[in-house]
Design brief:
globular, 2-enoyl-CoA Hydratase, Chain A, domain 1, alpha/beta, Rossmann fold, binds nicotinamide-adenine-dinucleotide, about 10% strand, N-(1-d-carboxylethyl)-l-norvaline Dehydrogenase, domain 2, 4 domains, 8-stranded mixed β-sheet
Amino acid sequence: MSDFVSVASDGDVAVVTIDNPPVNAMSFHVREPLHQALAALRDDPSVAAIVIACAGRTFVAGADITEFGKPVQQPELRAVIALLETIAKPTVAAIHGTALGGGLELALGCHFRVADSKAKLGLPEVKLGLLPGGGGTVRLPRLVGAEKALGMIVSGAPIGAVEALEAGLVDAVFDGELVAQAVRFASEMVAKGGRFLPVRDRNDRLGKTDLAAFDRQAAELAKKARGLEAPIACAQAVRNAISLSFDEALAAERELFLKLVAGDQSRAQRHLFFAEREAARGPGKDVARRKITRIGIIGAGTMGGGIAMAFANGGFPVTLLETNEEALQRGLATIDKNYAVSVGRGSLTEAARQQRLGLFKGSTDYADLADCDLIVEAVFEEMAVKQEVFGKLDAVAKPGAILATNTSYLDVNAIAASTSRPQDVVGLHFFSPANVMKLLEIVRAEKTAPDALATVVELARGIGKVPVVVGVCHGFVGNRMLAARGAESEALLLEGATPSQIDRVFTDFGWPIGPFQMGDLAGLDIGWRNRKARGLTAVIADTLCEQGRFGQKTGSGWYRYEDGSRDPSPDPEVENLIRAKAAEKGIAARAIDADEIIERTLYPLVNEGAKILEEKIADRASDIDVVWVNGYGFPIGKGGPMFWAGLEGAGKIVERLEYWHGQTGKEVFKPAPLLRRFAETGSWEAAAR
Ligand code: NAD
């Protein structure tokens, strides 16, 4: 019929097969022939039932998101589903792989759904700042009940076939021979006879909704949305499914969808979706990969332990090396304890814990690293120590092994130079806790070989990380920009702002946590040690550290933490200290508003990003956004600092930076030439050319 949709018959059952690799997206060139085929089969008296199945590795895994925001080419998905629901003979979706978004909505247009036992089903639109716009919010609750549907649609998380069977989303689960089983299922339905109700007419589950419980659940979810519109709209749409007629609810879903798809938040989230995929491509498909079987980790401290877990969680055997037996046992015990906590929480089975622990081998002898294909160093942040470690690695590592450093700031070129094989050296900057945080800055040093780089990018993806390739500079992309964001912290305090006021501006902006709370969480001693090593000072932060106020771990820092609580309370002592230091410097307190705080923290953040782009430390502005959203909590609804700069208005940012540069003479405010070009062209790509 078409290259993308074909029809075959198995007795009197017609099997419609969609074949649109790689994931059978619901593109226009699928919808059109599918619509035609279904219309013909509906009217064909020789056809008793219809099965919709997919070729390749999955059922329809979603809409074609490259079509979002463009004029819709008819027939749109909703029309295909509406047509499906006019068919009186039994229709069956045969689901393998993943039925996501528009794919699941298509399946919801069928009378029945049968699934392979390994299939997953979900409506992930919320992750793109959208809601399911093809009737998903109105049909899913009719099958699984409003509360279950709300949970699935607001989280966007897919469920497995067995759970879907229990929930009433699918009617049968099979192991293997799915299409044949679906045909058999369809024939049984034909034999059973009677009238088959489309999902739109099935109201029994919805009628039983406990409205008060539903509204409580929706209110909870709204609280967690932190300023994102899509989760709220999702909840509203499901609520409409309960209280309005099918057609009214469907029309309301459409309206909500159109509003979201045209909004900045969804644009930002779709930008991030493509940005992550682009960043994860690394040097490209044509570059060869090295074989990675066993991982070595040096240092079993905070980072080494977390990195080791990240690899073990990805199924890799790990050799963990420490300076002595005591430090090694301490590191292994922490890993053991972390897995036990996961088991206690129910997020890991006991069997999986045992299996993962079985992947670890401890050692204090560098010779034991000889069989490792990738060795990641996570020892103290000192160049001399790092170079000594890499010197030893050079002597024991097998030829072609990739040697990586987890340094936060240091020059990876200098570390590479302490080996005879700088082509094998790369930075792998994990974020803490390394077994949880998704971001991985992959530092390409001057001499890093393309195949070494391609290998670690692919490996990072394989263990569920979000990789971004960056160049060498002090602090790479993330920490370098973080320094720019915080450069005015002390000045703002001295001039009259308070830590809680600044943090509040950040959380109102959408950050999960403000910079001072963040400092208390990470430990103020880290920055203090760094400053001392670099001959820098920070009058207030240094004094806090001299007083032993390191943050949460000591019960006080920028805030006070009563009785081991993690909730910060503002501390008058800190405010007194700030005022005293200001008086010493002859600075009078004045009122500082939210706009000024943003101009002096987030505008320098963007400006530093532009400098990084100019220096080609990052390949693309979108890579910087990926770093900030995944590593530092930049609000996803604003798309990362570089995307947000466009929303905020680059011209305005340049103008205000110039103003602050004039006021303070500080380098962080001096607008980068590339930022000026962005203001002129409206495109980072054009500006970077
Ligand atoms: P840590 O002090 O918790 O752990 C360092 C470990 O390395 C210690 O257990 C120590 O015994 C061991 N060690 C020291 N010298 C060694 C050697 N020669 N051979 C083997 N083991 C040795 O420190 P950390 O916080 O895990 O930081 C480690 C590295 O990770 C640093 O380079 C740091 O900058 C970087 N990093 C830290 C964070 C963070 O948030 N803590 C985040 C990203 C990167």
